[in-house]
Amino acid sequence: xxxxxxxxxxxxxxxxxxxxxxxxxxxxxxxxxxxxxxxxxxxxxxxxxxxxxxxxxxxxxxxxxxxxxxxxxxxxxxxxxxxxxxxxxxxxxxxxxxxxxxxxxxxxxxxxxx
Amino acid sequence: xxxxxxxxxxxxxxxxxxxxxxxxxxxxxxxxxxxxxxxxxxxxxxxxxxxxxxxxxxxxxxxxxxxxxxxxxxxxxxxxxxxxxxxxxxxxxxxxxxxxxxxxxxxxxxxxx
Lengths: 114, 113
Hints:
The complex is a heterodimer. By secondary structure, chain A is mostly beta strands. Chain A has strands at about 5, 10-15, 20-25, 30-40, 40-50, 55, 65, 75-80, 85-95, 105, 110-114.
């Protein structure tokens, strides 16, 4: 049982380059989330999805785009990377959102923008 | 947006000593409350959750937390810690009928032998 899988796990980009992070879950969860983790700031929500074909903005959406074309996948895109986007990115999924009370996290993707 | 405050960024403690990690939140409406743990180079995993009912919640690995509505707090406790409890702990909150989880800044628990 893989749970939540993120690819790639590590990536180095130059300023202005683009990339996509892939999150895949095999638990048939409706809700999926992208967070970034920065030292001393905890996790901040970038974008989330409450079902296939839907997306919504979180706390820090600027500079990111997302897509949920298939229920099991949630993609996070950076169109023009900036050094401020250097961070560890976590994907999470949930069966029923807050009312079921549990997020399942991937192992993270460490992105460095030079 | 909701606010979650973890008052201590780092907590050093000796093995077998008790520990309390503090969490306060700001909300004028009912909330769900959670504690997650993150071991080095891993994702977060759920320790315990408060959705409703008893205000004392027991979780995995001997941890427990108490929901105090009047003080808007959800402090995490363990009566006797082990070296293996060394990790970062995150408090999180979500509103009823709302699907976003807000996290605190984290508390690093360092258990010393």
